[in-house]
Amino acid sequence: MRNKLSCLLVAAVLIMAFLAPGMVAAKVFKVGVTTIVSHPALEADQKGFEKALQEAGLEVEYDYQNAQGEMSNAQAIAQKFASEKLDLVHAIATPTSQAACKVIKNIPVVYSSVTDPVDAGLVKTMDADGGNVTGISDAWPIERQIALYHEMLPGAKKWGTIYNAGDANSVKSISWTKDAMQKFGLELTEVTISNSSEVYTAAQSLVGRVDAIYITSDNMVASAFGSVTKVCNPNKIPLFVGNTDQVPLGAIAALGFDYFEVGYSAGKKAVQILKDGKKPGEIPSGLTENLTLHLSVKNAKSQGFEVPQKYVDMADKVYE
């Protein structure tokens, strides 16, 4: 009888030993997602993030929250997440990342699509800073963009831009844009907005004042990008951007990166936290490096510009 009990006990221990790894792997992680608005770039960011976690074999339950462009909503979402039992928060874009990092102190936060994380107050340094936050910057190579667009359209001396003055990400990008424009002897006319409904009027205000328009990494303008093309096409104003997703939506060209890759890189940092057990403060923030040129011959013609064959040949993706 004793031998039989001993055998049963050993069998139970062996079963538990085999089940234990499966039980750990089967854990469902809860991840809160907060984004400032809906538009293709930020949606691609989240898809890339999820792909990285999926490839790591993690089972995740996501709570998607959208601030609809309102900081009050972003703050409410952050408060909601701070009070819940989440394993991690993915904060997309500067305003929502700022709101999340301000109130979430005991849950790992991974940000993405933030131009200057240090200036925005998310981290003290791009190196590991010991806090509960890490992530990926989507800082654009603005000087390289302006240099290329100026080369493509040398006759355009007066450029216009539209941005949300309440977004720290956009303000920083515009600062870099002004420096780049000045370096190449170009003028920049700025029009600011406070919500997406103002984008069309802002674009109209640039008609007759500029030779071309450049849109930087502004989420609010991106959410109403069609309003810009509605003005540029009939008025023959060449439109250039830094977000490759906006080329098929009406821009002529973008020297930029794929926001799926931004999110994927952020997701890899989340994997280090959820799977490898690292603390966010042990993981340095990162930059997006790979650049591609997307170009639309069709949009150029709609805006009165014929793209030289040189640039068609050098483009990584061409929309006819």
What report would you give on this structure?
A seven-stranded mixed sheet has the order 7-6-8-9-10-12-13. The protein folds into two domains: 28-138 and 259-287, 3-Layer(aba) Sandwich (Rossmann fold); 142-256 and 292-319, Rossmann fold. The model is unreliable at 7-15 and 18-24 (pLDDT under 50). Helix 2 runs parallel beside helix 10, helix 3 (71-82) packs parallel to helix 4 (94-103) and helix 5 (142-152) crosses helix 6 (168-183). Helices cover 43% and strands 21% of the residues. The protein has helices at residues 2-25, 40-55, 71-82, 94-103, 142-152, 168-183, 199-204, 219-223, 225-235, 259-274, 297-302, 309-314, and strands at 28-35, 59-66, 88-92, 109-114, 133-137, 158-164, 187-193, 212-215, 239-241, 253-256, 286-287, 292-296, 317-319. It has twelve helices and 13 strands. With 320 residues, it is α/β, with parallel strands linked by helices.
